[in-house]
Specification:
It is a single chain. By secondary structure, the chain is of the alpha+beta class. It contains seven helices and 19 strands. The chain folds into two domains: 17-95 and 98-131, Sandwich (Immunoglobulin-like), CATH 2.60.40.10; 138-368, Alpha/Beta hydrolase fold, catalytic domain (Rossmann fold), CATH 3.40.50. 19% of the residues lie in helices and 27% in strands.
Length: 371
């Protein structure tokens, strides 16, 4: 996938669930365990130590069952019918570590797997599967002080309704009087404001980094990016102005009025994954007086000529997965550094346009913010 902005916007729904760049395993190890994202007491789907996924669907009257895991045109994983009416199958190859959306196609119809929990992606609630990662400790649920994630409904005159946001406040916020910087963190195309806390574990990443003394605590705000009005393949029709109005004129004033924020440009950041990166780039360039920290996660790049007033920018962070042509990110950061910007690149190894890339990116970004 190209790093250029117009070619990454829809990557959330076409990310490669199975890494066919890896050598095909000659023998599948039969140490399968239920996926961490299964519904309570559900055995399937299962994953093994090599990263293969195995599925079981009960559909005795079906003629065909496949599991779609973003296999890039390979048709998904075909399941075989057993004598008891169930259908079973194992992915053709090992999957990348981390979270993946998927759905089940039964006789051509698209359904969710009743054994798995659902997550909003691809403009619908989809099944989710987690391939345990070698570095999953940084977003693990641990016995450390935890912040709070709360839903807020804020008035939006521009859209003639109330809109929803999720706000993460760090551990101890409720008991203290300190004011905090704020990161406005955007989801990708086809997702919504639930993505970063559910799929991304942003709250747990923050809790763990704070407990380890690696970051200064700050608030995170997630809101719906008005992206789903743009249909797949129609990105040239996207207009930033409606969401920019919601964010700049409605949400930020609401957050500053209802939370203990440091309501200054110097203490405000914006970041986004995929299409959220496009939104971040456009809005930060349109409104340099609002944000001083910029981060694009698999969401394009900045060029030195994009930025009119260098003094207003404290950090530019660019990241992507190693399967996403990372030379675009690295070259962009080199050019920014040569122009005397504080620019940082991060490449997530052995991942593509997927949440493991973005979880790792947030882990790398957070310690650089609000220095």
């Amino acid at each position: 996938m190209k790093i250029k902005i117009l070619s990454v916007l829809f990557g959330t729904v076409i990310s490669c669930g199975v890494s066919f760049a890896q050598a095909q395993q000659s023998t599948i190890i039969e140490d399968f365990k239920p996926s961490p994202l299964n519904q309570p007491q559900q055995e399937y789907p299962m994953v093994n130590s090599q990263g293969y996924a195995r599925f079981k669907i009960i559909a005795p009257a079906a003629d065909s069952v496949r599991v779609s895991l973003g296999l890039g045109g390979r048709g998904g994983t075909k399941l075989e019918k057993a004598s008891d009416g169930s259908w079973m199958g194992t992915t053709e190859g090992p999957m990348d570590e981390g979270f993946h959306y998927y759905n089940v196609k039964i006789d051509g119809g698209k359904f969710n797997d009743p054994g798995a929990m659902n997550y909003y992606g691809s403009i619908r609630w989809e099944s989710g599967i987690e391939i345990p990662a070698h570095d999953q400790d940084f977003y693990a649920l641990k016995n450390v002080p935890h912040g709070h994630v709360q839903q807020v409904l804020f008035p939006s005159p521009s859209t003639n309704t109330s809109r929803r946001a999720f706000v993460y406040t760090p551990p101890g916020y409720e008991l203290g009087k300190d004011k905090y910087p704020v990161l406005y963190l955007q989801h990708g195309w086809g997702e919504d404001e639930t993505a970063w806390m559910n799929q991304g574990h942003a709250n747990l990443i923050m809790d763990n980094l704070i407990a380890e003394g690696k970051i200064k605590p700050f608030i995170i705000v997630n809101t719906y990016g008005m992206t789903n009005e743009v249909k797949f393949g129609k990105i040239r029709e996207f207009k930033i102005e409606p969401f920019q109005t919601v964010l700049i004129d409605e949400l930020i004033p609401y957050v500053d009025a209802h939370f203990r924020t440091i309501a200054k440009q110097t203490h405000r950041a914006m970041a986004g994954l995929s299409m959220g990166g496009m939104e971040t780039k456009t809005i930060t360039l349109n409104k340099p007086e609002v944000f001083s920290y910029y981060a694009l996660l698999s969401g394009g790049t900045y060029a030195p000529t994009d930025i009119k007033d260098k003094s207003k920018v404290k950090l530019i962070f660019l990241s992507c997965g190693s399967r996403e042509r990372p030379e675009g990110v690295n070259n962009a950061v080199t050019a920014l550094k040569e122009a005397n910007f504080n620019a940082v690149s991060y490449i997530s190894e052995k991942t593509g346009h997927e949440f493991q890339t973005w979880r790792r990116s947030l882990r790398e970004l957070a310690p650089l913010l609000f220095k």
